[in-house]
Design goal:
Chain lengths: ~550, ~325
């Protein structure tokens, strides 16, 4: 058969050109993808923390979001007092321990606190020795009304501060303030900055490359991005074992979990149940849970100023209609082992009082009776709740929706995003039911912020339930002034009894943070799951 | 060319102003207050602190005044400071722009390589097995959400096969390129599908043109016929689709950057929206509008280069 000359050339370019491209691409991909180049965190050189969001600033007086405080702050800075490394075994609340202050005493009237400072403590990068002037400077910097530093609340009880000598400072309070020590130690706490460093660098530069006395110093920082800490050799407790800590932002928790399993990161906070199960099944991954002392409370907050929830009978009916044991067991027990909550105080908070049966028990019949007593027939109570894409909140609200429907209460769940959710629930109080998992570490955080009437008048920002009870306000005031811990505890117990009878909230479970790390990493010291001390961590053979 | 450029620039300026007004108003009409969001949910700021911040940010002034203040600063080249990060927005954008441009650039390169080559192959095999296979693949590529592809690729190539890091922190050029492979492919496949379809139909159209028949009749090698005579004449619609694809990629980068833990413009914008950090969102929007406009300009110039018959007046 005679071949058409064209047919021959048709075949040729396909044979020559296209495969040449493909070979080039394949070679390039092969070079880029060679496994020999894959990075691993298991180098014993650095500890790599994966986090969904990075710190926005490193100024310890201006941080509030958790990535800032949990990851960078406690390793770079120290306060006068600190959290203990371990909770008391009996589950009683943790008591602050010495840090930059070695000891302290309080005057009989509770108005003056004297702190004796540790000697020979060095600041990072040659900024000299830590003395009382740095404490005075740090407190005055926070109290200065012309700055808008976000952590002013921690020293709000301080009227003035004085340096008695280089190693003694005295705090004069506005009024006796029993929460002072815990407020100085917990959450964002009060951190000491170097006066020379702030003055020399200026606030903006200091926020990026701050100077403290902690076991690690900052060597690189990108706002909300990558942060690198390096061991501070002259730290007063000695140089830490791990030379470098890197904070890497991985927005997707599933991806972060995979990265942990592949040794690309070796520390992670877990919130997503799917990721939790994936890591639980993985070999060589340790999941740290907090069975006893917790600082979180998952609850429904009920708007007590708005009909129909201004009627305590309707609030009781809502509680009776919920099978809290079933909700906890079905959805939260796996990741939060501390159990079903009976009070508004998380278990680790001073004054916590857990009495079984405090919250009205599951009894749909009783719920219907109470609703009828309050004058509401089936379908006549219609409630509004907002949520955003936080899985716990969606779970809580959809479960409640089912249970409440059984007693003829309709719950409308509106889905929105974070900023709008906060505005509607907290700023505008435009809700009937507010489902939230909230962190509280000091009794004052619960009593003074969440329950006192003063908070309602601050625009409703603190008191979510818009709850008003004059007796509670008295108790809030009294516990602030109680210098004897036993007396303060009794007042807080009474406060919980009064509040739980009024039921501005329906507590569901005591929540805890879960952290994951590989088995070749030892001792990430953490209190309540939100503070991580690189100083206590070391690599071991697994 | 000059009058065209002037018209183009005027049109562009109007676009920027319109986008700016819409962004400015939409952000402020949307509920959520940046000064409240500055504080923790569990640790609300005092009323005094919140009010001081509102004054500092001029949020207590009427909307028109706020816009005036912003526009005046903008005219002087000042994008303002981030509310949350307390840094100039310009420096934040400068820091985050590179990774996004690299991702979009690599994504469109992959899209062009895959799209044009499969499009030509499909056209040459019209209505045969290979054409149907490529058409099906393109449909799947168009239909598959890029974040889903991204997770699938991370699971396969980074987690199981360990060819590339999952969330690596690239330092050398090679590491940067390696870190780009998966996200650029995930983001480029959708655009590749679009380009492939367009290339197929454009090439098919010109393959029947007289000059192609003439070229073949002259005995020109088929490869030259396809790549020079046919493809070049089919290039205009393809370039248009590539331009659209690039703009689309810039948007898709927001999602892909989240999945691949890349510190790009997408993360900055998302964080800005999340926190109602008005200056950050406005600044980033302006930059994105600039990028889109620049892309359109480049495409217009490429038209003229490809086809001398096209002139601008």
């Amino acid at each position: 058969m005679r071949r058409h000359p064209d047919r021959e050339v048709v075949a040729r370019p396909r044979a020559r050109h296209v495969p040449a491209w493909l070979i080039a691409i394949a070679l390039a991909v092969g070079a880029l993808a060679s496994p020999a180049l894959a990075q691993s965190a298991r180098s014993q050189e650095s500890l790599i923390w994966g986090y969904v969001r990075g710190p926005q600033t490193l100024d310890p007086h201006d941080v509030t979001t958790s990535p800032d405080r949990a990851l960078a702050k406690f390793n770079v800075f120290e306060g006068l007092v600190a959290l203990p490394t371990e909770f008391p075994a009996d589950g009683s609340p943790a008591v602050p321990v010495p840090a930059l202050a070695e000891s302290w005493e309080v005057s009989d009237d509770g108005m003056t606190w004297t702190f004796h400072l540790r000697r020979g403590v060095a600041f990072h990068r040659g900024f000299g020795e830590f003395t009382s002037r740095d404490v005075v400077f740090s407190i005055e910097r926070l109290l200065d009304p012309d700055t808008s530093l976000r952590n002013q609340g921690h020293v709000a009880a301080v009227e003035r501060v004085e340096a008695v000598d280089p190693y003694t400072v005295r705090l004069h309070l506005v009024s006796p303030w029993s929460p002072l020590l815990t407020e100085l130690a917990f959450l964002e706490g009060f951190m000491v900055v170097s006066q020379d460093a702030v003055e020399e660098l200026g606030d903006a530069a200091f926020a990026e490359r701050p100077v403290g006395t902690g076991a690690y110093q900052v060597v690189a920082f990108e706002p909300s991005g990558h942060t690198v800490l390096e061991a501070f050799e002259d730290h007063w407790r000695g140089a830490p074992s791990i030379p470098r800590i890197e904070i890497r932002v991985i927005a997707d928790e599933t991806v972060a979990g995979l990265a942990l399993m592949n040794d690309e990161v070796n520390f992670l906070i877990v919130r997503d149940p799917e990721v939790f199960r994936m890591l639980d099944a993985a070999p060589h991954v340790h999941l740290e849970m907090h069975p006893t002392a917790t600082y979180m409370i998952g609850a429904f907050w009920l708007n007590t100023q708005r009909a129909p929830l201004d009627d305590v009978r309707v609030r009781q009916a809502l509680a009776h209609a919920l099978d809290r044991d079933a909700i906890y067991g079905q959805f939260f027990a796996e990741m939060h082992p501390a159990g079903v909550a009976e009070t508004i105080f998380p278990t680790g908070v001073f004054g916590h009082r857990h009495v079984e049966g405090t919250v009205p028990a599951y009894d749909p019949e009783r719920a219907r009776e109470l609703l009828a007593e309050a004058g509401y027939g089936p379908g006549e109570v219609r409630l509004l709740a907002h949520t955003f894409a936080q899985s716990e909140y969606i779970t809580m609200l959809t479960a409640a929706q089912q249970y409440w429907a059984e007693v003829g209460v309709i719950l409308d769940i509106h889905r929105t995003e974070n900023a709008n959710w906060q505005a509607l629930n907290i700023h505008q109080a435009d809700f009937d039911v507010f489902a939230v998992l909230s962190t509280r570490v000091e009794a004052e955080d619960v009593a003074g912020t969440l329950l006192s009437q003063r908070s309602v008048h601050l625009g409703g920002v603190g008191n979510w339930a818009q709850y008003v009870n004059p007796r509670v306000d008295e108790l809030v005031e009294e516990q602030r002034r109680a210098s004897d811990p036993a007396a303060r505890e009794a007042l807080l117990h009474e406060l919980q009894e009064v509040v739980m009878a009024d039921l501005p909230i329906i507590p569901i479970w005591y929540g805890s943070h879960i952290a994951a790390w590989p088995t070749y990493l030892e001792g990430p010291e953490q209190i309540g799951g939100w503070r991580f001390d690189g100083f206590a961590m070391r690599f071991v053979d697994d | 060319m000059l009058p065209f450029l002037i018209r183009r620039l005027a049109w562009f300026a109007a676009t920027v102003v319109a986008v700016l007004v819409v962004t400015f108003v939409a952000l402020r009409v949307a509920p959520g207050d940046p000064t409240l969001l500055l504080f923790d949910l569990d640790r609300p700021g005092s009323q005094a602190a919140v009010e001081r911040l509102r004054r500092e940010l001029a949020l207590d002034r009427p909307l028109v005044v706020q816009f005036g203040i912003y526009a005046w600063r903008l005219v002087r080249g000042d994008l303002g400071d981030s509310v949350h990060m307390r840094r100039p927005v310009a420096s934040l954008i400068a820091h985050h722009l590179g990774p996004t441009l690299a991702l979009a650039g690599a994504g469109i390169t992959i899209a062009i390589l895959i799209g044009v080559s499969t499009g030509i192959v499909a056209a040459l095999h019209r209505n045969r097995g290979l054409d149907y296979a490529l058409t099906t693949a393109a449909m799947l590529g168009l239909a598959a959400p890029s974040f889903w592809l991204a997770l699938l690729m991370i699971y396969t190539f980074a987690f199981t096969l360990r060819w590339v890091p999952i969330a690596g922190r690239p330092e050398t050029l090679l590491e940067h390129l390696r870190a780009l492979v998966l996200p650029a492919t995930a983001i480029g496949l959708g655009a590749a599908a679009m380009i492939s379809r367009m290339t197929r139909s454009a090439v098919l159209e010109v393959l029947h043109a007289d000059y192609v028949r003439t070229a073949r009749a002259k005995g020109v090698a088929e490869g030259v016929v396809v790549l020079k005579h046919a493809l070049r004449n089919a290039a205009i619609p393809i370039v248009t689709v590539v331009g659209l694809g690039f703009v689309h990629l810039l948007g898709g980068a927001v999602v892909i950057e989240q999945v691949f833990a890349r510190d790009g413009l997408g993360r900055l914008v998302l964080l800005g929206v999340y926190n109602r950090d008005y200056p950050v969102v406005q600044g980033a929007t302006i930059v994105i509008v600039l990028l889109v406009a620049a892309t359109n300009m480049v495409i217009d110039i490429v038209y003229a280069l490809l086809d001398p018959r096209i002139t601008y007046a």
